[in-house]
Amino acid sequence: MSKFYGIGTGPGDSSLLTIKAVNTLKELDILYTPEPKKEGKSLALSIVQEYLKEDLEIKQRHFPMSFDDLEKTKAWDEIAVEIEKDVKNGKNVGFVTLGDPMIYSTYVYLLERVRDKVEVETIPGISSFSNIASNQNFPLVMDREPLIVVPCTTDESKLDYALENYSSIVLMKVYKNFKEIIEKIKKNNLLDHAILVSNSSLNEEKVYTNLADLDKDKISYFSTILINKEEKRVG
Amino acid sequence: MSKFYGIGTGPGDSSLLTIKAVNTLKELDILYTPEPKKEGKSLALSIVQEYLKEDLEIKQRHFPMSFDDLEKTKAWDEIAVEIEKDVKNGKNVGFVTLGDPMIYSTYVYLLERVRDKVEVETIPGISSFSNIASNQNFPLVMDREPLIVVPCTTDESKLDYALENYSSIVLMKVYKNFKEIIEKIKKNNLLDHAILVSNSSLNEEKVYTNLADLDKDKISYFSTILINKEEKRVG
């Protein structure tokens, strides 16, 4: 029976796909790929390119990143209808998404629209924070401690609570209020227990282990900070 | 140059290893595997078995799960010394660990002991909660919400705070005070937004989508509850 497959590509390095993801990609008739910009190149597509069969039909679709909810909803509705039609026509249809499909991925908006209409199988991927921790040999969380992952676009009070109350913290989307975040980390005496990585597993990857001396006003869109009070890192 | 490799096997299904993990396993001279019980079979070893070369030397080592910290520390010290010696003798040495090496894994205790002495490379793995979410098509977290992962062996106040204040919650190690945890989920009106999975990705996997009707006193050691206030699941 034909299916819709949501496939996590992991953070960027093609060798971080799972065997299951690679085997599934090889069975697809059609692959949908998300593009943040019209006519832009899909990062998710470039990660999986080497595993695709030659006659695979690729449908690059634009996913608006704007704050206009109506524009977004309309795009997702249209792509979901297209996917449903392809699966009902007997095709195995895939969609690739960066990192893990269930953790901060727009794949969920497609999933919600098609899961009652066609069979769906989701294949997990390595999330960016997990990859950064391994690459830096930086233990994230142990024993009885909670792990909290906070997008820095959340309410400031939630960010403050996390920094004050948890030992193991992942801060995502730090690009927006980067300077203030560093100040908050400093205020909580966590600078020595934090690392910052931009563009993890891509060619432009940058690792900062000494956040105290980090004299930058801006930081890449794909930047993540890992904090573990049990770990000590000074540049 | 020879290295020590910490390799995440993912949750249990051999096809959930990454390409990088499989390629690394093939290059090893020696593989250390953890065994919770003396003479017991290593689950991590059985997951990777199909990828190992025939003449690989396997060193099964006992990792005590007791509450006796001295016994544990002694075991880790001894294994770390053994690994260091093997790497300094020019061997590529691996260690396999369930899930992701940086998230609640005893691998970290070895890493801390050897990372200043030999070169170490850690390869991430799919964590159990990420796998459960994908298998159940259960979105974990979206947009601006934090994600909190709580081992239920933590302080009760931390568990309560998480249930009262976050939308996206992973509860691990729920076997111990299972009945009380279900009561707490009920009290916070989260029963309809939760699923429980035991032995994810193993043959004995069990999925419970209706926690209200779950009439059990005990639950398997490998049990995890996913909660997302934005998701509604009733049996």
From TrEMBL, chains A, B:
UniProtKB keywords: Cobalamin biosynthesis, Methyltransferase, S-adenosyl-L-methionine, Transferase
Pathway in which the depicted protein is active: Cofactor biosynthesis; adenosylcobalamin biosynthesis
EC numbers on record: 2.1.1.151
UniProt keyword Cell inner membrane present: no
GO annotation (BP), single: methylation
Annotated Tetrapyrrole methylase domain residues: 3-214
Molecular function in Gene Ontology: cobalt-factor II C20-methyltransferase activity
Domain of life of the native organism: Bacteria
Gene3D superfamilies: Cobalt-precorrin-4 Transmethylase, Domain 1, Methyltransferase, Cobalt-precorrin-4 Transmethylase, Domain 2
PANTHER family, sorted: COBALT-PRECORRIN-2 C(20)-METHYLTRANSFERASE
The family this protein is said to belong to: Belongs to the precorrin methyltransferase family.
Name of the molecule in the record: Cobalt-factor II C(20)-methyltransferase
The species this protein was found in: Tepidibacter hydrothermalis
